[in-house]
Amino acid sequence: MPAIVLTPAQRKEHRAAAHHLDPVVMIGADGLTDAVAKEADAALKAHGLIKVRVFSDDRAAREALLGELAGRLNAAPIQHIGKLLVLWRPIPMKAAPEAEADRGAGPRVVKLVKFSKSGNHRATVKKVKVLGNERITAGGLIKRAKPRAAGGVKKKTLG
Q: Which residue ranges form the domains of the chain, and what is each CATH number?
């Protein structure tokens, strides 16, 4: 028996969210092995909602596999359509969020959107990697961040 029981409305939301996903775990002729369960568990920890492809022609065996996988991973079975199984489990919170804050600024991917001067053309979207010592200007250029002066000391004029 799966540990998580969802209402039909919640299952419907998860089915809609899983529609565009690709299978991340595939179960072959050996069936549900420990390695497959471990990979499915890692994928559920990372994504929360996963698709599993089963290379078996027996529908009853796939139904049993969905129930066994959901029970073994403490996940909720969302959908079984064809040879695809959809599972959901809430993503666990990270153990120490303060440790991540101490890490400092690192590289991140940012989308730059530049709109055309005439309204008839599409905006151009470009993904760029911004390092910790860089910033993006209002015009969309990447510049090295300058260290800020401490205090706001003004220059004194002679006169």
A: 8-88 (3.30.110.60), 103-144 (no CATH)
